[in-house]
Amino acid sequence: MLGGFSYRDMNEAMLADPQKSWSGPLITLLDAEIKPPKTAKDHDAVDNYRDQLFWQTTSAEVLGQLKDSSAVQPLMKVMLDPAKGDVQATGVLALVKIGQPAVDTAVKLLQDKDDKLAAFALRRIKEVSGAKKVAKNKPYIQTAALILGTIGRASALQPMIDALGSTKNETNKAVIAREITKIPATPESKKAFEHAYESISIDTVLPPRGNSALQALTEAASSFYDPGMVDWLLDRAENTKGGAEDKKALQGTITVTVLKLVKPDQLGKAKAAVDKYGTKIEKDAYAHTDKILKACGERVSCYLAAIEKSENQEQKSQFAGIKAGYMIGILGNEQTVDELVKRLGSIDNAAVRFTASQAIDHLLPKGSTKVADELDKIIDKNLKSADRDKIMGDAPLKQVMYRIRTRAQ
Questions:
Q1: Are residues 369 and 316 in the same domain?
Q2: Of 74, 129, 169, 184, which sits with the fewest C-beta atoms within 10 Å of its C-beta?
Q3: Does any domain span residue 49?
Q4: H helix count then E strand count, the chain
Q5: CB 167 within 8 A of CB 176
């Protein structure tokens, strides 16, 4: 019973003053199996499950704070163990904080050169799923790509490009392509992404929910913040082969991505796409896009004002705020980030706030300790407010904070 009251204080105390001497015991705690209870009535199993979640989540968090490179392998095992899904969000952030040592290990796994981690992943998949055989697509490569994309360091870019060129499995290729959009872009990475996209069939799906790979990649393409991709996207809408329903869904997703990326001189192309492929959702999004582009043109200050407008925090008009965020990412620079950070307090809509956080990430390819410190203050203030909506809305901001901090180191 006491654990039910004290666990938050225990976690906060450990994070407030982490000690290097804790690394060994914390790494040992990560080794334990996590077994979800089969029924809520099995109180012993429930208690053990909660204990493991607390200790392994706290261990991952503290090891990230310590930036201990000896924790990389254990944390990688957490990411590769399908039974530890509830710890993996914390585990990958710990790897982000550790930085380059985590990149080195993940690159080795991406290249299928880490036999021990690969064998561990396949063994745990068999044990957890009960399957006698595991798919031959080497699913651990997807995990390696996810880790590299989340860390977001430029040092991972060339290995990711190389992997895209050599990977034959379409699911693995789609995951790598999706994650490469999270790393500061180059002309080579955009070209590799486009080539991979064109080689993936419309019926390829992504784990774990079986969502369309091409729709996921279409949404990810907006992370390049490149209006130069508009023509290529529209070509994909017209020429990608597939069944009528699948193609219609893809065309709708492409239209929305085009609306996020278009500049004022491309409005005609966007309007043609909306007229051809759009439903009411795309038509409403176009109306907001048309209005804000004609009002702001290429003036970043105008988009900064628009992203924090109270009317653009409402769900019915949130696409105007989203579009403003993309234009800030397209037209802005490192100095723009300071102005955007100042406005975060006025951005309450979760989708608009997410877009703002992604623009910050995009505009700081070399990272910034100063901006990371400012974001940390905002996140800490909202955490102390106990406002659940604000705390949940800061989840993407927290990831960006860690990414830009580790890039700057």
A1: yes
A2: 129
A3: yes
A4: 23, 2
A5: yes
Residue 50 domain boundaries: 1-92
DSSP 331-395: H--HHHHHHHHHTGGG---HHHHHHHHHHHHHH-TT--HHHHHHHHHHHHHHHHHT-HHHHHHTH
Question: How many CB atoms within 10 Å of residue 408?
Answer: 14
Domain count, the chain: 4
Establish if 207 belongs to a structural domain.
no
Residues 87 and 131 in one domain: no
Amino acid in the structure at residue 90: T
Q: Residue for token digits 């990230």? A: 64
Q: Which of 269, 297, 325 is the last residue of a domain?
A: 297
Domain-embedded: residue 361 = yes
Contact yes or no for 372/329 (Cβ under 8 A): no
- Is 213 a member of any domain? no
The three-state secondary structure class of 242 is coil
Give, to the nearest 10 degrees, the angle between helix 170-180 and helix 140-151: 10
Tokens for 394?
Answer: 């800061």
pLDDT at site 388: 82
Buried b (16+ CB within 10 A) or exposed e, 270-281: bbebbeebbeee
**Model-level pTM?**
0.94
pLDDT at 3: 59
pLDDT of residue 39: 85
What pLDDT is attached to residue 8?
Answer: 83
Average pLDDT, consecutive stretches of 10 residues, N- to C-terminus, the chain (409 residues)? 72 92 96 89 86 95 96 98 96 96 98 97 92 83 98 96 95 98 97 97 93 97 98 97 95 98 97 96 97 98 98 96 98 97 94 97 97 95 84 90 93
How much helix, strand and coil, in percent to the nearest 5, is found in the chain? 80, 0, 20
Based on the domain organization, do 79 and 17 belong to the same domain? yes
- What tens digit of pLDDT does each residue of 110-122 get? 999 999 999 999 9
Does residue 117 share a domain with residue 79?
no
Q: Are residues 349 and 312 in the same domain?
A: yes
